[in-house]
Task: inverse folding
């Protein structure tokens, strides 16, 4: 159980195009989804937190007009990289959380398999 | 504020030897602590979590972690390393506020290399 599907797994695009990445929770409802960017030296950078039906909360330094996040339903969140440039090339990972109650505060996050974006 | 420190970028261990991957944390309130593993070009997989009252937590693939409140540590351990354990390991801490908003902070990751 608790499967998160992220699509596509890899994408190569030309500079200036927009790329959409989907993150779906397949067998549970995810009230909160997180988007991360992973750099070559392995660290995970939280980009934004999205809650179903509301605007995403972006971390400091992340351009909300460039990285558009939509969490339209309890099972789907999308990240659109607008007008991608080579410096946006990276590994993007989403994760999803079940609704938290006092009894589930220690429930783990569930991660998608990531999307390798290469902008040429 | 909350933070997680993984002081070692890489840990090398011989196959069959015990391994330890270190993690220390800082968080207000009760700590909700986790370990995740990442294989190349994949997302993170849950390994284990801290449950209140059990200082030694057992998880997947023979891994365990020891919670030490006084040292604010949650080190990952395994009695006998396998070559297939070679991967990237992340420690994480979750904080939940009264409004149910959660923030999860990850350490910088430790690359485990098990040498045959």
Result:
């Amino acid at each position: 159980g608790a499967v998160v599907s992220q699509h596509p797994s890899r994408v190569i695009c030309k500079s200036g195009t927009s790329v959409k990445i989907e993150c779906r929770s397949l067998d549970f409802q995810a009230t909160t989804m997180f988007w991360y960017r992973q750099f070559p030296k392995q660290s995970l950078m939280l980009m934004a937190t999205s809650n179903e039906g509301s605007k995403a909360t972006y971390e400091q330094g992340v351009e909300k007009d460039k990285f558009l996040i939509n969490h339209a339903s309890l099972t789907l969140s999308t990240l659109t990289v607008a007008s991608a440039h080579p410096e946006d090339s990276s590994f993007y990972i989403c994760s999803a959380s079940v609704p938290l109650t006092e009894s589930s505060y220690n429930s783990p996050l569930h991660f998608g398999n990531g999307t390798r974006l290469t902008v040429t | 504020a909350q933070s997680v420190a993984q002081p070692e970028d890489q840990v090398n261990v011989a196959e069959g030897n015990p391994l330890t991957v270190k993690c220390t944390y800082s968080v207000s309130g009760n700590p909700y602590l986790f370990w995740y593993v990442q294989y190349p070009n994949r997302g993170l997989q849950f390994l284990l979590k801290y449950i209140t009252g059990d200082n030694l937590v057992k998880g997947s693939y023979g891994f365990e972690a020891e919670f030490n409140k006084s040292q604010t540590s949650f080190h990952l351990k395994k009695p006998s390393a396998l070559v297939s354990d070679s991967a990237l390991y992340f420690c994480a801490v979750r904080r939940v506020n009264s409004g149910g908003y959660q923030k999860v902070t990850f350490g910088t990751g430790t690359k485990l290399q098990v040498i045959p």
In short: The mean pLDDT of chain B is 92. Chain B touches chain A at residues 30, 32, 34, 36, 41-46, 49-51, 88, 90, 92, 94, 96, 100, 102-104, 106, 108-109, 111 (CB under 8 Å).
